[in-house]
Amino acid sequence: RNLPHLSYSASPTRQSRNELRSSSMAADHLAGTPIQLGPRYNQATQIGRFKHFLDLSDPRCLFPTTFLGMSVGEARQVLVDANATPHIVQARPETIPDQVWLANKIYTSTIHPDTGEKIPQPFRMSGFALYGSPIVVGMLLPNPTGSIGQIVFWQWANHTHNACVNYSNRNATSPTSVSGMAMGYTAAVGTSVSIAVGLGQVLNRAVLSQATKTMLARLIVYPSVATANIVNLVLMRYSELSTGIHIKDGEGVVRGSSQLAAQQAILDTAITRVVLPMPLLLLPAAGMNAVEKFTNVLTRRPSLRIPINAAFCVGAFVAGLPFALSLFPQSGDILASKLEPKFRNLLDSNGRPVERFNYNKGL
Question: What is the CA radius of gyration of the chain?
Fold first, then answer.
């Protein structure tokens, strides 16, 4: 459907581009500006959430002007115009024009929903796989020399990236000091690297046969990575647990900060961090076994072993990210009865009891 009343044009003039760029810069600091339409797909279903996070993690959103034909500033302007048009705002998702959904996809993948600021590219979900893949490949490829320095480096790089992603996609309604963030980063990365590296070193020093060590190594990799991911997440978002996060009623009104809602938000996010490594640790090994069993590619060209293994690692990362994120909707929902007593007897603007609240779970 064409929308002649929307100001976006596929080929805006230089003046309009400058105006849009200015409005985009202003938007970076307008926390809570109501210009997003919300998810396109039904968030009550697993497939709907998967489609939503597939959009959110689309690497093309890192360079939307080049790959999608619309800049972040232009996307914001489309959404501003759409929100000023009642028949679009109130329409069913399937009747909203694709142009508006494209703008929503670009904007929501770039702008933090609480702060209204741009998330740095490497720490967006659309950049997680692109920037994280080299690290993942470095971690999962064989280490012939068994160098502890190489292991520590890749673990440090991995958990530093994870810490920055966790912080950049947190619920930002609770304040975090610079010193608190620095202490959280140091503790998160230090603990995570210690867990990941320490278990491997303990196993290497154990008096066991090589076959037993190999079997145990495969068994402990996943729990060690999952545990490190959880520790990283909790420490980088600890301020949410101590001060609580904003919760809203059904009318979108902030009713206060809840520590119990923060606990639920971080618990749900921690579960996604437990699931996220599964494809990375299972699919590359299964893929390489299939290549070796059903083809003679590696026999004829052994030099392809590392590139093929790396390709499986990247593919597992790209596919596993939206799947893990889709376990829970980004907008959490919680009963008033599960919150602090001060939230259990509140009334909305019509005098009706508020029975449910929602919050930004973070990613």
Answer: 23
Model confidence over 134-145: pLDDT tens digits? 887 787 666 655
Terminal Cα-to-Cα distance of the chain (whole angstroms): 33
Report the alpha-carbon distance of residue 109 to residue 170 in Å, rounded.
14
Q: What type of residue sits at position 151? A: I
User: Residues 274-297: pLDDT tens digits?
Assistant: 898 888 778 887 888 888 888 888
> Nearest 5 degrees, angle CA 188-CA 192-CA 196?
175
| pLDDT for the residue 47 | 93
Environment class of 177 (CB within 10 Å of its CB; exposed 0-12, middle 13-18, buried 19+):
exposed
Please report the pLDDT score of residue 219 as a whole number: 62
pLDDT, tens digit, 9 for 90 and up, residues 341-350: 999 989 999 8
* Local confidence band at 29 (pLDDT 50, 70, 90 cut-offs): very low
Looking up tokens 């002649």, which residue turns up? Answer: 4
**Rounded average pLDDT over 307-318:** 84
User: Bridge-partner residues for 96, per DSSP?
Assistant: none
Q: Who has greater pLDDT, 354 or 114?
A: 354
Q: What pTM value is reported for the model?
A: 0.78
Q: Report d(CA 59, CA 73) in Å as an integer.
A: 18
Residue type, 119: I
C-alpha to C-alpha distance for 238 and 245, rounded to whole angstroms: 11
Nearest residue to 361 (alpha-carbon basis) of 131, 49, 30: 49
> Taking a C-beta distance cutoff of 8 angstroms, is the pair 275, 98 a contact?
no
In angstroms, rounded to a whole number, what is the distance separating the alpha carbons of residues 147 and 145? 5
Q: Nearest Cα to 77, choosing from 93, 58, 60, 99?
A: 99
Contact 205, 217 (CB under 8 A): no
Give the neighbor-by-neighbor strand order of the sheet with 254-258: 254-258, 245-248, 356-360, 331-335
| Torsion angle of the four alpha carbons 337, 360, 168, 53, in this order, in degrees rounded to the nearest 10 | 120
